[in-house]
Amino acid sequence: IRDENENILVDPGILQLGRYGALKARLGQLGLSPQDIDTVINTHCHYDHIESNYLFKGKRLVIHEKELEYCRKLYWPEFANAFLNILRPDLVQGDRQLSSHVKIIETPGHTPGSISVLVETPDGTVAAVGDAVIVKEDLLELRPPSVVTQNIDPEEAVRSLRKIAALSPSLVIPGHDAPFRP
């Protein structure tokens, strides 16, 4: 995401994306390098969304405050230090406007502090929702996401799906599926 001369990356992904160069190559296709990223947003703290954070050491990390605590319980404290605290955590609680066109909203249920990123574009709202929507059927059928992993609170997960649907996004980028237009 590029807004107000800032480059924002959502969920850098699993360790291998960084280690084997896939993430750097994709950034290169966009004319960017890891050094060009100003802010990393982690929608939640599951390893497959945060391990390539290491490429952005020292950069701003936007993550919900509940996720830092959850990460320390889910894995071990050193894991959180290795993949979260090497950046500069900017802990959010509640919804927050990050820039003119980028907003963070709470979408808990998959994890205690799951967040989604809304980007206002000329074509409508793009919602990068992490695992609040694992695959498109989760949102289309308003079912608790469960293809990859279970939710900590399935009922809360469905409330978050309803919240996302009520925004009428023009494009949804789920955690483990291709972007789609609902």
Your description of this structure?
By secondary structure, the chain is of the alpha/beta class. It has seven helices and ten strands. The protein has a five-stranded mixed sheet with strand order 1-2-3-4-5. A five-stranded mixed sheet has the order 6-7-8-9-10, with no helix packed on it. Helix 4 (65-74) crosses helix 5. The mean pLDDT is 95.
The major sheet is characterized as:
5 strands, mixed
Overall helicity: 25-40%
Beta-strand percent range:
15-25%
Given the C-alpha coordinates, what overall shape results?
A: globular
Residue windows where pLDDT falls under 50 for at least 5 positions: none
Rg, alpha carbons? 15 Å
Number of strand segments: 10
Strand order of the largest sheet: 1-2-3-4-5
Give the helix/strand layout.
Blueprint: E1 2-3, E2 6-10, H1 15-19, H2 22-29, E3 39-41, H3 47-50, E4 60-64, H4 65-74, H5 77-83, E5 88-92, E6 96-97, E7 102-106, E8 115-121, E9 124-130, H6 136-140, H7 154-166, E10 171-174
Parallel strand pairs: 2-3, 3-4, 4-5, 9-10
Antiparallel strand pairs: 1-2, 6-7, 7-8, 8-9
Helix pairs in contact: 4-5
Key traits:
182 residues, alpha/beta, 5-stranded mixed beta sheet, 25% strand, globular
